[in-house]
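Subject — a protein and its fold
Fields — amino acid sequence, structure tokens
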Amino acid sequence: MKKLNEKFLEEKKSKFISILYEIDSIDEVDNIIESLRKEHKKCRHIVYAYKFDNIEKNHADKEPNGTTRGLIDIIHRKNLNKTLIVVIRYFGGTLLGSGLLTRTYTKVSSMLFIE
């Protein structure tokens, strides 16, 4: 496992932290998520998507259906493999609605590829 990049975005007081990892096995995903849950105990959601050879997964962590689809879309667009994108969300008190939430998850994930 290798952490490649990390970005931060705030939207209506909700804080979003995106992290890009290069992974050596699918087993590493659970370890990374568990570690992030311990580190970010007060976060509301940790969503993620990964692709490892022919296996891919998108996990929304109780967010509305489809709002985290942008993570796996970015992996496909960038033609990535053995890659994990994680977004940690701290709820800021204002509901964002599924449209803004989808755009924010996609934006903070896209930021990982801009230097």
